[in-house]
Design goal:
- With about 750 residues, the protein is α+β, with helices and mostly antiparallel strands.
- It folds into three domains: about 1-40 and about 170-215 and about 225-335 and about 360-390 and about 515-735, Multidrug efflux transporter AcrB transmembrane domain (Multidrug efflux transporter AcrB transmembrane fold, Up-down Bundle), CATH 1.20.1640.10; about 60-165, 2-Layer Sandwich (Alpha-Beta Plaits); about 425-510, Alpha-Beta Plaits (2-Layer Sandwich), CATH 3.30.70.
- It is built from 24 helices and 13 strands.
- It has helices at about 1-15, 15-35, 50-60, 85-100, 140-150, 150-155, 175-190, 195-220, 225-255, 265-290, 300-330, 355-365, 370-385, 405-415, 440-450, 485-495, 495-500, 510-545, 550-575, 595-625, 630-655, 665-695, 705-710, 725-735; strands at about 40, 70-75, 105-110, 125-130, 160, 225, 390-395, 425-430, 455-460, 465, 470-475, 505-510, 590.
- α2 packs across α8 (about 195-220) and α8 packs antiparallel against α11.
- It is elongated and about 90 Å long.
């Protein structure tokens, strides 16, 4: 691999102008398509085959009037007043009359006729149902509805909006996300010691992210995508794009510290060595993200493939555009200390040895490796303890920002009607196979059975479709949408299905709350198999890279510890409710249902990044000296600074998204930022050297039969030409490459 990348690096250096022009042209073309020919981004997470989705499909076919999106308009009268006061009631009626004329509206309920008023008549609601699905209700329709309620607001009423059609769109690019990029630049400047060198990874990463994200927007014209897919692509693409460029640039500047080093040869050599690790590590990220397709959940598969495509662009840019840009920079990237061979230290000032702190850290860790290893494992297991109580779900409107209309409507409905009102379930009875004379009796008996459950506060009267083959009932729980009792209630209500089936019908328990429970259950079932795929993948890839069995096993165990600690911390914050104030989390609740699967896929790839960059330097030194103890110290000293900087950059980028208003993005950003820091500094920089010290020479052993069977993947650059005679060896290398 290194030899081919060396040739690619030389080619990019010599044709630097063409390579740069090609990438800029690609950015222009993809950008134009993404901006002008893009599709609509969905805001909901649907999973084919789950019961709630089956019910939704049935309603769309046989009861379209009950399948459309709903905006629930919630009214609240001032303290000491009521909605039934003449002026307030007239204002509400006038607004709802205007709402009925909005394009796409098929039904508007009247709170005074449906008795949708609180006991004190201060809070009430009206449902505005649209013909189209919730995700298809346009912003123009929402704005028109808001204008229709002007008279109610003028009458002194508080008006808020909830319902299935009011899911907020995911947005990025706020101050917090930009602050993460600024922090990344500061880390780059400190690590590389040059503002010019620090700016290059940001520029190339932004080019890659722009191409990836705008390409995704173009593809959304043909494939249904959620807003989270785009945000995840930005998050991961930016983080890995900066890191991959950093690894190559840092290697290039390390080589340029020797005044005799030729700039062009140094760039090609950096692409061959650090670039090999980038390609290998990037491949693991891509495969891990693409493996999300194995869950069988379409929105998660699209999310993973979108992020994987952005990572692929980042890898290609790292091995083609980065060397071209480095060639354009030329001698400006050579460290100033290397400008003269006869450089003398300043009087009274000690010379700083490159990698001095990494050297000291490696020696400290390997001095008492068993104690370090045990202490680290115990600490990670302690962080993982909350994961035992992990509950999965999808955020309710209680998780939206407290100032948002969705959160305000949630609070008003809870105040006026109880917590379970925001968790209203929909019982859908398909009676098409029940004899016509028995349908009413069957549905009446079902309503009675549902109402008897101790967790049910109320059940509405059945509403039939036109041919009376499908009946719909609203079931109001006593507990909120995020409560475990509500999840248990959904399963108990579904226990009534056999009785309906005996009569010839089919019962579905659906609605937004039931859908969230179903998605969580589906993902929980997919989690063990996905973990198995990832662990096996890690063992295979690292065995190929390092020609060892114990190094991959150690890496996989470290990865599992990182995942457990990250999930434990996420449960502690988002489910238990700690740090809600500093992190601006409006309400504690279940962990986003797809977060563990997503975290495993993403963190696996990133963990393998650090493993490859760190251990490849150890193996490179071991191959030259056959001294395992010295190889560990050398590897950490040479790569520790860059790996630490890369982790801080990723944590800064991911951490910026913790302050995004979207509760899903917030939890993903926190889990990834925490996971990267734990994996880089505790697992890779601490436990890995300690474990390698305990393993000694055994770490690099491989059975002879397996050694012969495995292909030789050179990621350390052992087959590269002698750097002292680049011109002579270049011809020999090009002949070998062909």
């Amino acid at each position: 691999m290194a030899s081919r990348l060396y040739a690619l690096g030389r080619w990019a250096v010599r044709r630097r102008g063409r390579f740069t022009a090609v990438w800029l042209l690609l950015l222009a073309v993809v950008g134009g398509l993404g901006i002008t020919v893009h599709g609509k981004v969905a805001s909901d997470f649907t999973v084919p085959g789950i019961e709630s989705q089956q019910a939704q499909d049935l309603l769309e076919t046989k009861f379209p009037a009950a399948a459309g999106g709903v905006i629930r308009v919630v009214y609240a009268a001032p303290a000491g007043s009521t909605l039934t006061a003449p002026r307030a009631e007239a204002a509400v009626e006038a607004g709802l009359a205007k709402a009925a004329g909005i394009s796409g509206v098929v039904q508007v309920t009247d709170p005074f006729r449906t008795k949708a008023l609180s006991t004190d008549r201060r809070i009430g609601y009206a449902d505005v149902r649209f013909r189209q699905a919730a995700a298809d209700v346009t912003q123009e329709s929402k704005d028109a509805l808001s204008r229709a309620m002007t008279q109610a607001r003028d009458a002194g009423l508080r008006v808020e909006y909830g319902g299935s059609a009011m899911k907020a769109a995911t947005k990025v690019g706020g101050p917090a996300e930009l602050a993460g990029v600024v922090i990344a630049f500061a880390v780059l400047a400190l690590t590389l010691g040059s503002l010019v060198a620090a700016g290059l990874p940001l520029i190339t990463a932004l080019v890659g992210v722009a191409i990836g994200v705008l390409g995704i927007k173009f593809v959304s014209r043909f494939v249904e995508m959620t807003g989270t897919s785009t945000v995840l692509a930005v998050m991961i693409g930016l983080a890995v794009g900066i890191d991959y460029a950093l690894f190559i640039i840092a290697r290039h500047r390390e080589q340029l510290a020797d005044p005799d080093t030729d700039v062009e040869d140094s760039i090609a050599r950096a692409v061959a060595t650090a670039g090999s690790a980038v390609v290998f590590a990037g491949a693991t990220v891509i495969i891990a993200l693409a493996a999300l397709s194995a869950t069988g959940i379409p929105f998660l598969a699209v999310m993973g493939l979108s992020a994987a495509a952005t990572v692929l662009v980042a890898v290609l840019i790292a091995v083609t555009l980065v060397p071209a840009v480095l060639a354009l920079a030329g001698e400006r990237l050579r460290p100033r200390d290397a400008s003269s061979r006869t450089r003398r230290p300043r009087p009274g000032r000690r010379e700083r040895t490159p990698g001095a702190w990494g050297l000291a850290w490696a020696r400290a860790v390997t001095r008492r490796p068993l104690i370090v290893l045990l202490a680290g494992v115990v600490a990670l297991l302690a962080l993982a303890l909350p994961a035992r109580n992990l509950r999965l779900g999808l955020p309710s409107y209680a998780s939206e920002p407290t100032a948002s209309t969705q959160h305000q409507s949630y609070d008003l409905l809870t105040e006026g009607f109880g917590p379970g009102f925001n968790a209203t379930l929909t019982a859908v009875a398909d009676t098409s196979r029940v004899p016509a004379a028995e349908r009413v009796t069957t549905v009446t008996d079902l309503r009675t059975a549902l109402a008897k459950d101790t967790g049910v506060a109320a059940v509405s009267q059945p509403v039939p479709n036109a041919d009376r083959t499908v009946f719909v009932m609203a079931v109001v729980p006593k507990t909120g949408p995020d409560a475990r009792a509500t999840t248990d209630l959904v399963h108990r209500l579904r226990d009534n299905a056999p009785a309906v089936a005996k009569a010839g019908g089919t019962l579905y328990i659906a609605g937004v709350t039931a859908a969230a429970i179903d998605v969580a259950g589906k993902l929980s079932g997919a989690l063990p198999g996905f973990i198995g795929i990832i662990v096996v993948l890690a063992l295979i890839l690292l065995t190929l890279a390092f020609r060892s069995l114990l190094v991959p096993l150690k890496a996989a165990l470290g990865f599992l510890l990182s995942i457990a600690a990250s999930i434990g911390a996420t449960v502690w914050v988002f489910q238990y409710g700690h740090l809600n104030g500093p992190l601006s989390i409006p309400s504690a609740g279940p962990v986003t249902s797809f977060l563990p699967v997503l975290l495993i896929g993403v963190l696996f790839g990133l963990a393998m990044d650090y493993e490859v960059f760190l251990v490849s330097r150890m193996r490179e030194h071991h191959e030259n000296t056959r001294n395992p103890a010295e190889a560990i110290v050398h590897g950490v000293a040479r790569s520790g600074r860059v790996v630490s900087a890369a982790a801080l950059i990723m944590a800064a980028v991911f951490g910026g998204f913790v302050f995004n208003e979207d509760p899903v993005i917030k939890s993903i950003g926190f889990a990834l930022a925490f996971g990267v820091l734990i994996d880089a500094f505790v697992v890779r920089m601490t436990l890995v050297p300690a474990a390698m010290a305990l393993l000694g020479r055994r770490a690099w052993s491989l059975p002879h039969w397996l050694d012969r069977a495995l292909p030789d993947v050179d990621i350390e650059g052992a087959g590269l030409p002698d750097p002292r005679t680049p011109e002579r060896n270049e011809r020999r290398h090009e002949v070998a490459a062909h």
